[in-house]
Design goal:
678 residues, alpha/beta, 8-stranded mixed sheet, 6-stranded mixed sheet, 28 helices, binds 3-hydroxybutanoyl-coenzyme A, binds 1,4-dihydronicotinamide adenine dinucleotide
Length: 678
């Protein structure tokens, strides 16, 4: 069955694209589409053309799996030119999302018709490239520079309404009528003598404000720092206003080739596929079909319980939160409401959507109210005794097929499962704070967790918009276990002469949104600190004792002003110096390079151990955890991909130079010249 078919509706040739799952423009599709364009050109009976698609979207764009390979003709730019050069009008019918090459195809057509659910975008920048099939030159000519810039540089799609308002869509029709309306539109325009041709238009770029590019660069400078693709995107749009179309296109191609072969795009493409791969569990039996989940119970309305609840409420699940005390329950529900109201104020939710989400929520102080839940997630204090007590109770209350999950950060999920009569129904669901925002979810597979429970957890994660990664049971699972290695070294570096601000800067220069000490100040230094048991045994303890508990107390590793601007603290320096003397370590100047190596290489090494032990299924899962849960800069691909890029022999040599542990897997792969990501 061809992926592109043609049918005749009188004088209109209807070209239908059908290449599931996302109608990507693979070589096969481009060839078939080129044949359809030839058919339209050569058949005198054809007076107009409709391009449409089957499936749940118009197209996800070019086939990303073909990137980095030699180009095969017809290339997408060639195909789009041939559509634009047809001497018959072409109407494109956008039955849903049209991204990247899908949007560029639409720009090559004379007329664009969509449905309310249509979204149009050029997300190439997110995979480290720029639109390479005319998008940077045609879009500004169709919608103007001011509108084109954010679409191309942020990569975020626009709604059908917005698309129509800026001239990217000519019409919006009801989904069930799209095909017929497109054909009618084609008949209507077939008689016209002239049609808009995107590449030939100048009306939207003649009048632009020349200061717009400088202003855009300045406004986004911080966000775009160090990234190759957004810089080229802006430059390409600017060139669209300065050069004739053909010369602009030649520059676009040059930039595209440069970016697509570059390390940043390779890393971002890795991240794209890694996230999708992470959702798959190797060796899962075919009969492990997800269980239906409609009612979710949550125990604990604290920081995590409330955020976790919001995920399910927003996705339309019924949620019951159970607390041990009314006050905590009221506080928790109040915070959920406040968060939703804030989202509504920013225009990201309507008042009706907020009410609908809140309408799914019930609260209780009685565990019995969890009896009819399909899934219960425990988010109480991080103490094994309490968790065991909770799971013991759940075991007597939950219905037989219910899944019982713990949001524990570090505790042994097997031990928790063992205190129930149904350990196969127990799983770890490790959300990240703030749980309503962070995309990562570690799904912790206990030794006895059933395949069906795992399949359900992965399926559910997708439904609530999370990126799920499977982790085996170990202290801290994938993410926190690796984080601990970084923190250990961060503290060591202080004892040897580095300062918090230097360590943080090295990591932010690398691309992290914040360094370890900024992170500690944000989270609170007193997590896990007990005022009754404190014994001034570490820098952190002393800081807590002195009331320096992080941003919330106005001071931690840094001092904060009323605008949360931080400055290094003499008091902290003195505490560090005191401990450094006690540790007997010589103080010295430590280079940024050494800090980077000692912060990042031990994490790679821990990742290798995690792989070796089978805690992670694959190296790319570790990358997914770090990019989505801990702010690892995506344009370096995550810790394991980054190690592959700089060379495992380099990492090995660095670890040895600093006298650090080397995992056998890392040593072996380095010796063989292999990579983690294959
Ligand atoms: N090329 C190849 N495969 C793609 C693809 C693409 N453009 N887009 C998605 N896929 C694959 C995914 O890897 C996944 O494969 P799997 O089932 O084997 O894991 C499958 O299609 C389904 O994808 P999702 O799970 O992501 O499906 P969703 O429905 O959640 O999302 C989507 C659909 C919004 C289209 C999303 O897949 C997406 O954002 N795709 C990438 C869009 C993009 O970056 N387009 C630009 C491509 S570059 C381009 O066009 C260059 C041009 O300018 C020259
Ligand atoms: P929290 O202290 O904010 O909330 C815990 C809530 O549980 C409190 O409201 C408390 O009243 C309630 N509670 C305690 N015992 C209970 C019981 N027996 N029955 C019903 N309710 C009970 O704690 P937080 O931060 O939400 O952490 C909860 C869990 O999530 C812990 O296991 C923690 O390790 C984990 N976690 C925390 C993260 C964070 O950043 N805070 C991140 C990821 C996981």
């Amino acid at each position: 069955m061809s992926k592109v078919t043609t049918t005749r509706e009188g004088e209109v040739l209807v070209v239908t694209l059908d290449n599931p799952p996302v109608n990507a423009f693979s070589t096969e599709v481009r060839n078939a589409m080129a044949a359809a364009v030839d058919e339209a050109a050569n058949d005198e009976g054809v007076k107009a053309v409709v391009i449409r698609a089957e499936g749940r979207m118009f197209s996800g764009g070019a086939d990303i799996t073909e990137f980095g390979k030699p180009p095969v003709h017809p290339t997408l730019p060639e195909l789009i030119d041939s559509i634009e050069n047809l001497d018959k009008p072409v109407v494109v019918a956008l039955n849903g999302t049209a991204l990247g090459g899908g949007c560029e195809i639409a720009l090559g057509c004379n007329y664009r018709i969509g449905i309310p659910a249509t979204k149009i975008g050029l997300p190439e920048v997110k995979i480290g490239i720029l639109p390479g099939a005319g998008g940077t030159q045609r879009l500004p000519r169709v919608v103007g520079v001011e509108e084109a810039l954010p679409i191309i540089v942020t990569g975020n799609p626009v709604s059908s309404k917005k698309a129509e308002a800026i001239g990217l869509l000519d019409r919006i029709v009801a989904p069930e009528n799209l095909r017929q309306e497109a054909i009618a539109f084609a008949r209507e325009v077939a008689g016209r003598s002239e049609h808009p041709v995107s590449s030939k238009r100048t009306d939207r770029i003649d009048q632009h404000d020349p200061g717009v590019f400088k202003a855009f660069r300045e406004k986004n400078a911080r966000r775009l720092k160090g990234l190759d693709a957004p810089a080229r995107c802006i430059e390409a749009v600017e060139l669209a206003t300065q050069l004739p179309y053909d010369e602009g296109i030649a520059k676009e191609r040059e930039f595209f080739m440069e970016l697509v072969m570059g390390d940043q795009s390779k890393a971002l493409r890795h991240v794209f596929f890694a996230e999708r791969q992470a959702g798959k569990i190797d060796g899962l039996p075919r009969d492990a079909v997800p269980l239906p989940i409609s009612k979710v119970g949550i125990i604990g309305a604290g920081t995590m319980g409330g955020g976790i609840a919001m995920n399910f409420l927003s996705a339309g699940y019924d949620v019951t939160i159970v607390e041990r005390e009314q006050e905590a329950l009221d506080r928790g529900v109040g915070i959920i409401r406040k968060n939703y109201d804030a989202t509504a104020r920013k225009g990201r939710m309507s008042a009706e959507q907020v009410d609908k989400a809140m309408g799914h929520l019930t609260t209780s102080l009685d565990y019995q109210d969890l009896a009819d839940c399909d899934l219960v997630i425990e988010a109480v204090f991080e103490l094994m005794a309490i968790k065991k007590d909770v799971f013991g109770k759940l075991d007597t209350i939950c219905k037989p097929e219910a899944i019982m999950a713990s949001n524990t950060s570090y505790l042994d999920v097997n031990e928790i499962a063992a205190c129930t009569s149904r350990p196969e129904q127990v799983v770890g669901l490790h959300f990240f704070s703030p749980a309503n925002i962070m995309r990562l979810l570690e799904v912790v597979r206990g030794d006895r967790t059933s395949p069906q429970v795992m399949a359900t957890a992965m399926d559910l994660a997708k439904k609530i918009g999370k990126v799920a990664v499977v982790s085996g049971v170990c202290h801290g699972f994938i993410g926190n276990r690796m984080l601990a290695k970084r923190q250990e070294q961060a503290s060591e570096l202080l004892m040897e002469g580095a300062r918090p601000a230097q360590v943080d800067r090295v990591l932010t220069d690398f691309g992290f949104p914040m360094g370890p000490f900024q992170m500690a100040d944000l989270a609170g230094l007193d997590i896990g600190w007990d005022p009754d048991k404190t014994s001034s045994s570490s820098v952190r303890e002393v800081l807590c004792e002195r009331g320096r508990r992080g941003q919330k107390t106005g001071k931690g590793f840094y001092d904060y002003d009323e605008n949360r601007q931080r400055t290094p603290s003499d008091e902290v320096d003195a505490v560090i110096a005191d401990f450094a003397v006690k540790s007997g370590k010589a103080q010295r100047d430590i280079s940024d390079e050494e800090i980077r190596e000692r912060q990042l290489y031990p994490m790679v090494n821990e990742g290798a151990l995690i792989l070796e032990e089978g805690v992670a299924q694959r190296a790319s899962d570790i990358d997914t955890v770090w990019v989505n849960g801990y702010g690892w800069p995506p344009h370096t691909g995550g810790p394991m991909f980054w190690a592959d890029t700089i060379g495992l022999d380099t990492v090995l040599a660095g670890l040895e130079k600093h006298g650090m542990e080397v995992s056998p897997l890392l040593r072996d792969k380095a010796a063989k010249g292999e990579t983690f990501n294959g």
